[in-house]
Amino acid sequence: MTRSTRMTLAGGAAALALALAGCGAGQAEAPEPAGGDSGNASGDAGGAECPVEVDEEIDTSVRIAFQPIPNGDLVVKDLGWLEACMPNASIEWIQFASGGEVIQAFGSNSVDLGLVGSSPATKAASPPVSVDMQVIWIHDVIGEAESLVVQEGAGETLADLAGKRVAVPFASTAHYSLLAALEREGMTAQDIELINMAPDAMLAAWGRGEIDAAWVWAPTLPRLQETGTIILSAAETAEAGAPTFDLAAATTEFIEANPEFMQTWTAVQDAAVQLIQDDPEAAAESIAVELGITPDEVLPQLEGYVYLTAAEQAEQYFDGQMAQALADTADFLVTQNEIDEVAESYEGAVFSDAIRQVAGQ
């Protein structure tokens, strides 16, 4: 099957749910948002100042999936930049717990744009699911912020976890990193007791001793690290040839219908990255509000990611490299029986026009 035969979002929802369920997502329909609608659907910016040129002609409605991950998306949300820059648009923010859940929401036409990991995005773009969506932005390149943390006494190496209970959100970048690490160690998922668990459920399970280890991201990771020890990270699996990203994706239908929105959205995200790079303390204040922690707790979390401006992304990833990264991820996922086959091409799964416009290319 090629991308030219990909199913529509509505027609592909059932196949998508089944495919992700096979990976452990285990839900036949898109899940309820983890935190509900916590955004401003009215378009009222609440006094926020737009960091780029305001466009009052944009009057589209958009449903944005976000996750509690420390990056520029939370800065944009907290400061109300989208609402300020597009005052006549209707912006609805919906929280999800993992990329796998967001992909299901894409498949059921419940969101138009949102944050997904590189592994879930690859699964969605691969046969037989082939969701008609495109990668539009890199929120961050994942490093030590996603790591494998183990309970005290549970082991010091991945091999020590043989037969033990390891939690990870299935169909996530953490899941992909764990599988890559197991393969590197000469192990498979069958060598451990792999448990599908959302990050917010890990804290209680960890406290009750129901899991021996977990591969997860901030803000759950530092909480587990208070009594556990990190033995591997996504930075190490990236160095071994399995990089992961937190990506933004949007449906092709929405992208084609809203070119002005896409350019402004990208410019705003670029402004958020520049704030993280130039004034991390200010960025941490906004991220702290969204995560419910202190700015001092956010700052070390930011060090676990790499944040790239539009110009950096255009040069490093959106000139053919992102499509190759998705293809490389798909090659690995096939070997792990996580997807059925690799798509003929992933070029159609990447939208670079807005990034190039913002980057001045």
Topology at a glance:
Blueprint lengths: L8 H14 L13 E2 L23 E6 L5 H8 L1 H5 L4 E6 L3 H9 L5 E5 H8 L7 E10 L3 E6 L13 E4 L4 H12 L8 E4 L2 H9 L5 E5 L2 H6 L2 E6 H6 L5 E7 H6 L1 H20 L1 H12 L3 H8 L2 E2 L3 H7 L4 H15 L17 H7 L2
Parallel strand pairs: 2-3, 2-4, 7-8, 7-9
Antiparallel strand pairs: 1-3, 4-11, 5-11, 5-12, 6-9, 6-10
Shape: globular
Which range best describes the helical content: under 10%, 10-25%, 25-40%, 40-55%, 55-70% or over 70%? 40-55%
Poorly predicted tracts of residues: 1-45
Q: Main sheet? A: 7 strands, mixed
Question: What's the total number of strands?
Answer: 12
| CA-atom Rg in angstroms | 19 Å
* Average pLDDT figure: 88
Tally of discrete structural domains: 2
Number of helical regions? 16
Spell out the CATH superfamily of the largest domain: Periplasmic binding protein-like II
Strand content: 15-25%
What is the CATH class designation of the largest domain?
Alpha Beta
Overview of this structure, please?
- The protein has about 350 residues and is an alpha/beta fold.
- The chain has two domains: about 5-145 and about 245-360, Periplasmic binding protein-like II (D-Maltodextrin-Binding Protein, domain 2, 3-Layer(aba) Sandwich), CATH 3.40.190.10; about 145-240, Periplasmic binding protein-like II (D-Maltodextrin-Binding Protein, domain 2), CATH 3.40.190.10.
- It has 16 helices and twelve strands.
- The chain has helices at about 10-20, 70-80, 80-85, 100-105, 120-125, 175-185, 200-205, 220-225, 235-240, 250-255, 260-280, 280-290, 295-300, 310-315, 320-335, 355-360; strands spanning about 35, 60-65, 90-95, 115, 135-140, 145-150, 165-170, 195, 215, 230-235, 245-250, 305.
- The strands form two sheets. The chain has a seven-stranded mixed β-sheet, sandwiched between helices.
- α6 links the parallel β7 and β8 (about 195).
- The longest helix is centred in the last third of the chain and has 20 residues, at about 260-280.
- The radius of gyration is 19 Å and the shape is globular.
- The relative contact order is 0.17.
- Mean pLDDT is about 90; it is low at about 1-45.
